[in-house]
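Quick check before the chapter quiz. The format below is the same one you will see on the exam, so make sure you can read both the input and the output lines.
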Amino acid sequence: MSSHPLELSARVLETGVVSEPVNRVTNEISELADGLAFVESFSHCAIFDTGEGLMCFDASGAGSGKDVVKSIRSWRTAPISNLIYTHGHADHIGGSFAFAADAAERNHPKPHVIGHENVNTRIDRYTQTSDWNIRINQRQFGGIRSDMGLNIGENLLRFLPRSTMRPDETFRETHKFTAGATTIELHHARGETDDHLWAWLPEKKWLFAGDFIIWNYPNAGNPQKVQRYAFEWAQALRRMIAQGPELLVPAHGLPIEGKARIAIVLDDIATSLESLVTQVIEMMNAGETLDTIIHTVKVPQQILDKPYMRPLYDEPEFVVRNIWRLYGGWWDGAPSRLKPAPDSQVALELARLSGGADNLMKRALELAETRDSADLRLACHLADFAGWAEPDSKSIHANRATIYELRRKSELSLMSKGIFKGAVRESQAIAENK
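Here is the expected output.
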């Protein structure tokens, strides 16, 4: 049995030392308070015994939903009366079919599903772009994990199972109701998504934060996903602090106990996001380009060293880009990139000027050998140009794969590692004529 999540959380926050994983995917269930349990999965599921049935916050993903339900049933056998989606990401709703199956097996009514009104729009978009979402998640997670919402048991790979439960009840701004003797408040706020909510149980002083807290730097910049909302994310965290929560239950990472401790964590995250937004907008107002901004705006290392702020998933540089995209559009300020020539055409011209694609690759390898971060960035540019200039060259792509593997190993965030590993695989397939 793993360390109890509240014990581990307290130890990590008190010492600042992370000696074991804080984002665990064990499907183990732990009781956090009287009538409240928590299954650690991808994502987690929190379960509140209301006295009139079980209320679950999130259903985890398609590959873990059955195990999550199994763990819930090791704790309570009462009907699952309510299923609340903190938002519509596949790892939060893709496992809902297992909740429906459990109800059918036990002759219980299906859970009443509640979510923000934009959840249905998201499900529709995932249906329309299923292949695209499968592809980018395979790249983002390096092709290692299969529990990112993919339902492999169906005839066709789908990003969401066809049997994913849609909300029975939706709301726009706030929704308040009672379950047993307990008041449940659902509050909409844009952050990682436009359909996100956080839940507050005032009599219990419990806060269910969804992905507003993930025990990594906020996922407000994902380079392959739709717009995120850094400033509104920070505003939501400020509203959470104002409630005075004494127990915070996130959808990723560890629960946090204690009013003061929770306030510090929420404030640190909000302050960092506010700082990034302020800096980017100030530089935009001063007429700076995106290139200048992304190489200027930084988060202090002492902030990134905090156990709940480490850039191991998303990273601040990507958040900066998303802030620019929200306030400034897609053009980065370089005139040549408004209506650019094809990459292959630019690459062929650079290869001609430098004496051939081999010369571009030779210099790329020289830069990569230094292992310096700035040199590796430049090496990747040259390796791409060489690959675009000679797209069928086995030797060029073998070297490009080597350079991107070095780049992958130098990065911290899962997103960077996944994309750079995708480049490695792409070139390896050409080099090995697969």
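If your answer matched, good. The chain has 16 helices and 13 strands.
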